[in-house]
């Protein structure tokens, strides 16, 4: 593997996605036709990079990135060549400085580190912005071009597809009969490739009912995610049922569907109590939240295992500008949650046009999709509708 990335950073509150950065660095190497070479990337702190900057450059201060070409002399080149190794060099990045710069620039930590890797790599390739203003502009233009291309590329990590089958129960209940059966629908979804089944047991039982969740718990072969409000009766059912996970959502009797995320920051005590009860029963808890920093921080503070980011505003956007703004909110919230150690899911309103861009985010583990798939199934059948969505997610996760 041409990219060797080492993390020597001791702040446990900052989670760094090593695989993501390695993939991005490998892609950058490919763009520079340098895949025959090895590079080493070290992520460290201000203290260590200050020592390196002082020792090798005579500058007693921290910096964001340092580059050290491996073959500065013909002797070094011949030594590497004689043992079959082609070394391009080393890149050292201070995570401390990158964090500060990311905050100032309003970008994610991983995006800032990616830019610094790009900058360091171009130095190893012979570019040097310190030679002249012209050289600085050439290097800056190439950095900008590479970063833009990188963000338009797609990742290798494929989120799981979890199907919400509530709407199957809604159709059944509309006629007060037994068909279509959501239990059968869940089995078809799993056979078609779904990695999980999502059901929302509401207080008013408007779609999924007690019989459904008990049969589903016995028959689901993948993973059962029980969406629920923090209501005492539903909590007791969940503790008895022991689904693979629960997702706490806001619930209003008059709403047609969940309209937004939980106000976690405004009801920490109540939600923390529910999380604690679930933890004792061995049930992981996800909190359905809007993609906002204060909600991410609150979810982390009260001990959630997951957050599910509400994608409704992104899906419902009426202009490209608005959609991009909502997308960036999701990106930022997902990065922040990941860095805190939260696991990240996303869902609500995703369809066959809006899913791919969210599926390409490396920080997201699972997408919860229901209405779009069930409505598509009316025309093509449930099996095909699930497979079509699965293909969209796979195609969004192709290697760079």
List keywords for this structure.
eight-stranded parallel beta barrel, alpha/beta, 17 helices, four-stranded mixed beta sheet, 2 domains, elongated, TIM Barrel, Collagenase (Catalytic Domain), 400 residues
Q: How would you describe this protein?
A:
The protein is an alpha/beta fold. It has two domains: 3-152, Metalloproteases ("zincins"), catalytic domain (Collagenase (Catalytic Domain)); 160-395, TIM Barrel (Alpha-Beta Barrel). Helix content is 50%, strand content 16%. Strands 5-6-7-8-9-10-11-12 form an eight-stranded parallel beta barrel, surrounded by eight helices. It has a four-stranded mixed β-sheet with strand order 1-2-4-3, with helices on both faces. Helix 1 (18-31) links the parallel strand 1 and strand 2. It is elongated.
């Amino acid at each position: 593997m041409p990219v060797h990335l080492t993390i020597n950073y001791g702040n446990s509150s900052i989670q760094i996605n090593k695989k993501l950065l390695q993939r991005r660095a490998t892609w950058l190497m490919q763009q520079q036709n340098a895949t025959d070479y090895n590079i080493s990337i070290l992520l460290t702190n201000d203290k260590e990079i200050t020592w390196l900057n002082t020792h090798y450059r005579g500058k007693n201060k921290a910096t964001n990135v340092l580059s050290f070409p491996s073959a500065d002399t013909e002797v070094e080149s011949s030594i590497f060549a004689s043992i079959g190794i082609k070394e391009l060099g080393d890149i050292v990045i201070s995570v401390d400085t990158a964090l500060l710069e990311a905050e100032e620039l309003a970008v994610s930590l991983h995006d800032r580190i990616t830019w610094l890797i790009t900058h360091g790599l171009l130095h190893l390739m012979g570019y040097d912005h310190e030679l002249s203003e012209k050289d600085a502009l050439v290097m800056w233009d190439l950095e900008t071009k590479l970063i833009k291309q990188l963000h338009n590329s797609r990742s290798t990590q494929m989120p799981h597809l979890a199907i919400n089958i509530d709407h199957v129960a809604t159709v059944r209940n509309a006629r007060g009969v037994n068909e279509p059966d959501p239990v059968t629908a869940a089995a078809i979804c799993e056979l078609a490739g779904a990695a999980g089944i999502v059901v929302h047991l509401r207080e008013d039982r408007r779609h999924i009912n007690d019989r459904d969740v008990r049969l589903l718990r016995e028959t689901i072969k993948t993973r059962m995610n029980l969406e629920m409000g923090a209501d005492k009766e539903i909590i007791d059912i969940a503790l008895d049922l022991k689904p693979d996970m629960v997702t706490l959502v806001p619930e209003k009797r008059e709403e047609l569907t969940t309209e937004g995320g939980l106000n976690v920051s405004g009801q920490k005590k109540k939600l923390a109590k529910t999380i604690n009860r679930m933890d004792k029963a061995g049930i992981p808890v996800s909190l359905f939240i809007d993609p906002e920093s204060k909600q991410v921080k609150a979810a982390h503070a009260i001990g959630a295992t997951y957050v599910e980011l509400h994608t409704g505003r992104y899906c419902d956007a009426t202009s490209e500008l608005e959609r991009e703004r909502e997308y960036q909110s999701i990106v930022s919230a997902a990065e922040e949650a990941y860095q805190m150690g939260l696991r990240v899911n996303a869902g609500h309103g995703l369809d066959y046009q809006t899913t791919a861009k969210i599926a390409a985010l490396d920080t997201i583990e699972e997408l919860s999709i229901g209405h779009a798939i069930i409505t598509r199934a009316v025309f093509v059948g449930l099996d095909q509708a699930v497979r079509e969505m699965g293909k969209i997610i796979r195609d969004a996760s192709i290697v760079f």
